[in-house]
């Protein structure tokens, strides 16, 4: 029942979240005693603050109240933003992780930690051991943001920024590592 209910409610909730200027990152409906627990995770390229979560919560609640015939029972609404441990599974997740360290587990090969640069629709440029490398999303089995307790080195950020803007000149002795699509 909750999965069927979630499939009917998801487009309704997605429309309300999108109208508020955010992305619906995930949506779930669970049975919680006599009530339904409606979990909504929202995100945006600029992040989501507490005031924005409260505003989205009001809009989603109003939308659910307008569609109470679909719920047909009392509900508890939980609206939140994704945590740092959310896997990077879509290009927009990679764009939002720009300049962050990410632990990447490729479908083939050894796991590595790299800093995220420009993220396109099919691949992302990362800085790995001082060299730029293109990583195709299809080749990634799993990727998550690593928590850093200090600011990233300025030279790394500059190199990634120059690469994204097309102004980069590769320093002498350095080469780019390009990963071929599979």
What does this structure look like?
- The structure is a single chain.
- The protein starts with a helix and ends with a strand.
- It has helices spanning about 1-20, 50-65, 70, 90-95, 155-165, and strands at about 25-30, 35-45, 75-80, 100-105, 110-120, 125-130, 130-135, 140-145, 175-180.
- It is an alpha+beta fold.
- It folds into 2 domains: about 1-80, Alpha-Beta Plaits, CATH 3.30.70; about 90-180, SH3 type barrels, CATH 2.30.30.
- Residues about 170-180 have low confidence and may be disordered.
- This is Ribosome maturation factor RimP.
Residue-averaged pLDDT: 86
N to C succession of SSEs: HEEHHEHEEEEEHE
Number of helical runs? 5
Structural class: alpha+beta
**How many E strands?**
9
Characterize the quaternary organization of these chains.
single chain
State which percent range the strand residues make up: 25-35%
What radius of gyration results from the CA coordinates?
Answer: 20 Å
Query: Biggest sheet: strands side by side, in what order?
Result: 8-4-5-6-7-9
**Low-pLDDT windows of residues:** 169-182
Largest sheet: 6 strands, mixed
Q: How far apart, in Å, are the first and last alpha carbons?
A: 40 Å
